[in-house]
Write a structure and sequence with these properties.
Number of strands: 18
Low-confidence stretches: none
Helix content: 25-40%
CATH class of the largest domain: Alpha Beta
Largest sheet: 6 strands, parallel
Radius of gyration: 27 Å
Strand order of the largest sheet: 10-9-6-13-14-15
Shape: elongated
Mean pLDDT: 88
């Protein structure tokens, strides 16, 4: 169904000339809607329409104009168009590139424009304007009986259809790729040189046993059974890159304390080239989470959020001026290295036409992804984007578009947690919407780091935001199925791909 482009789908720009020829010999009826989920109500409406004319043309609202909910549409516009085109009763489909269907009506110039019975007495300004346009072009407005009414929104909310793999297949077909091609792609990218600048963090996970509580105070008493340290922050990003690239460099600020020395040893053991700058009074950032029976009881941070020293800024500037990597990643956790001033200084220190990527965490409350201007790729979470833009209620697609405008970035991948991701490029082409491919979430910590690494390299190498988004989604899904912020490997990506194929959801 999805592997061939339907001849029924007509480009909006070609509609006027195309339907002008048809109208000479046949009557045309036109109806418009979102069609996020095609249900029996739609089918009865189409049946009524087809009984009134020879040719049924269905236009649908483009993704960027849909505001039925924060994460709607559920189905991307290309897939919605193909779903409609697969119906025998529908003759032609158009993706409307305008907010309202007025221009589509004018281009098609149908004999009839059809709506449901519930709109027949509507005072809605949109319906009233449609009536005016219909009258102007000599089109008769008609209303279907509407004897059975379904709500797409209610159906989606009550039982959300799983179309993760349908969307994936749509994007793969567009790029003329298959899932196994991603393994070949990863093997082809090994020689890419990447340089990460950012805050190093040691994440400690302490498994505890609950002893009890003190009687006179609201204090919980626990006994630490075991603790394990993981390289976090920019160090974790570097390890993710190193899992599939040969040449990875990390520039960071680290203390000479025990944790700092341990981190340096581990990074060097992983063959990551290290520019470690020491500041005497700055401790190595340590975030210790205490767990009891799988529940996080408490998190204790040892951290300094003071800005780095001027001498440190000068050292990083010098490093960046001499940088010969293909990709530079600003991994910002707002623990001193990055602020509005240093972001500008470091960006200007880079050679022109350098491929630069930014990820800014807001767990510290001070991070702001909009501080990173004119980057090739930015990868914030939805929360980070909303806080930076001060927009709580915008639909996710509108939010993504606004983020690109504010940052003037070339590409943005917005991480949506258990809802997957959405991405968009500067040219405002079609939104890319992907659901996660996670069978069981064991630990989501570090999933964003994995996505950042794999999507950045893929975008640099292929120039395709679609392939970049898919690769990042696969990597993030793999990370969610592992405990601890440990790097995602090529082997794990392959196993995930094999699992998808084994499920026989598509060939």
């Amino acid at each position: 169904m999805y592997n061939k482009k339907s001849k029924k789908i007509i480009k909006f720009s070609n509609a006027k000339a195309f339907f002008k020829k048809i109208k000479k010999t046949r009557k045309i009826i036109h109806c418009h809607g979102v069609f996020d989920l095609v249900h029996p109500g739609h089918l009865r409406h189409f049946d009524f329409c087809k009984s009134k004319a020879d040719i049924l043309v269905v236009s649908l609202t483009a993704d960027k104009f849909i505001k039925k909910g924060l994460y709607r549409p559920l189905v991307p516009e290309q897939l919605r168009a193909k779903n409609l085109a697969a119906l025998e009763i529908v003759d032609y489909v158009i993706i409307d590139k305008n907010k309202y269907p007025y221009e589509a009506m004018n281009n098609i110039r149908p004999n009839f424009f059809a709506k449901g019975l519930e709109y027949s007495k509507s005072k809605n300004p949109l319906t009233q304007e449609e009536i005016k346009v219909a009258k102007k072009i000599g089109c008769k407005m008609i209303f279907s009986p509407g004897d059975i009414i379904f709500s797409s929104t209610k159906l989606i909310e009550d039982l959300k259809p799983k179309i993760s793999y349908d969307k994936l297949k749509l994007y793969l077909d567009h790029e003329k790729k298959k899932l196994p091609d991603f393994i070949k792609l990863l093997n082809s990218m090994k020689k890419i040189k990447v340089h990460i600048i950012g805050d190093l963090i040691i994440d400690t996970s302490s498994e505890c046993k609950l002893i009890g509580g003190l009687h006179k105070t609201p204090t919980i008493s626990v006994s630490i059974m075991n603790s394990k340290d993981y390289i976090g922050g920019a160090g974790a990003v570097a390890k993710h890159f190193k899992s599939f690239l040969n040449n990875v460099t990390l520039t960071t600020v680290v203390s000479n304390d025990v944790l700092g020395k341990r981190a340096i040893r581990e990074l060097k053991k992983n063959k990551i080239k290290l520019n470690s700058i020491h500041e005497k009074e700055r401790p190595t950032t340590n975030k210790n989470s205490f767990w009891v029976d799988g529940y996080k009881l408490l998190k204790v941070d040892k951290v300094s959020n003071e800005n780095i020293q001027i001498s440190t800024i000068e050292k990083i500037k010098k490093i960046l001026k001499n940088d010969k990597s293909d990709i530079v990643v600003f991994s910002d956790y707002r623990h001193g290295i990055f602020n509005q001033n240093t972001i500008s200084i470091f960006s200007k220190s880079l050679r022109k036409n350098k491929f630069i990527v930014a990820d800014s965490q807001v767990a510290s409350r001070w991070g702001n992804i909009t501080d990173f201007k004119k980057f090739d790729l930015i990868t914030p979470t939805e929360k980070e984007a909303r806080l930076s833009l001060l927009e709580q209620d915008l639909p996710i697609r509108t939010l993504t578009d606004l983020l690109l405008k504010k940052t003037n970035a070339k590409n943005a991948i917005l991480k949506l947690g258990d809802k997957g991701l959405i991405s968009l490029d500067k040219q405002r082409k079609d939104y890319i919407s992907l659901d996660p491919f996670v069978d069981e979430v064991l630990d989501a910590n570090g999933a964003g780091d994995a996505l950042l690494a794999y999507s950045s390299a893929t975008l640099y190498f292929t120039k395709s935001l679609i392939l970049s988004s898919i690769m990042g989604c696969l990597a993030a899904s793999c990370k969610c199925e592992m405990v601890g912020n440990v790097p995602v490997t090529l082997q794990q990506i392959k196993r995930k791909i094999d699992k998808i194929l084994k499920d026989n959801l598509y060939k």
